[in-house]
Amino acid sequence: MSLRFALIKISQASILLPVIVGLQNYKKLNIQFKILFFFFASTIGFEIQASILKMVYHNNMPGLHLFTLLEFLVFSSVYYLNFPKNTLLKLLIVINGIVFIVIAFTDALLINTIWNPNTLSRSYSSISIITYTLIYFYYLFSNDLEYYSWQYPMFWISISALIYFGINMFYFMLNRYLISKAANTAILSLYTHAVINCISNLLYAQSFRCFRKQKALL
User: Fold this and answer.
1) Distance from C-alpha of 116 to C-alpha of 148, rounded to nearest angstrom
2) 18, 52, 134, 173: most buried, per Cβ within 10 A?
3) How far apart are the C-alpha atoms of 21 and 58, rounded to whole Å?
């Protein structure tokens, strides 16, 4: 078994961490985290189909296009629900969601097509989600909190998203170029993505653990 194969499989299997912990605390989850739980659970299916398509057709890009769309809509919904009193921010999230959907379909049908990495839509999604996390942290640290910041489930979601999308953003942007022009760098970037994905899923699992003590959410 090669290092590449083992690392990819470990990365794929790491999604079980937030799913298992989320299931253990499911009755205590609010609507945001129930959405996240079902998203993480659906990711298992995406990982399975990616492996099958890669093995049979040597190309699993169509599933990635769909996954990126679902991922963006889920995170947008979570942050939308997190700011119930901020009408302007909620409106901007909705507008940004509409813009992304246009970009995603344009990317899949006209620019990169579904058989190539969705560099445009995935990059836009990453920048948007990073922006959501930064806005969350601004509000988090600007308010007088009842609990320590690390006791809030959304804190861990935002930390995880910031690490995952922040570190991998340039990999998403340059993925198609690296595959065709710099294979060695592409493989190294793939290893990095796999490791960061494991760390990210571990942090997502921690967000669900916060519900064991029923901490309030910001």
Assistant:
1) 44
2) 18
3) 33
- pLDDT tens-digit series, residues 63-79: 999 999 999 999 999 99
Tell me how many degrees the CA angle 66-70-73 measures, rounded to the nearest 5: 140
Task: Mark out the alpha helices in the chain (DSSP H runs).
Answer: 3-13, 16-24, 31-57, 61-82, 87-106, 119-142, 153-181, 183-209
Judge contact between 103 and 121, C-beta under 8 A.
yes
Residue 84 DSSP label: T
DSSP state of 146: S
Name 138's Cβ contacts closer than 8 Å, sequence gap at least 6: none
Structure tokens at 10: 């470990």
Q: How far is C-alpha 173 from the chain's CA centre?
A: 15
Give the model confidence (pLDDT) of 82-118 as tens digits.
998 899 999 999 999 999 999 999 999 999 999 998 9
C-beta of residue 207 within 8 angstroms of C-beta of residue 33: yes
Give the single-character DSSP code of 108. Answer: I
| Lookup result for tokens 């922040």 | 166
Taking the whole predicted model, whether its pTM rises above 0.85 is answered as yes
146: buried, middle or exposed (CB in 10 Å: 19+, 13-18, 0-12)? exposed
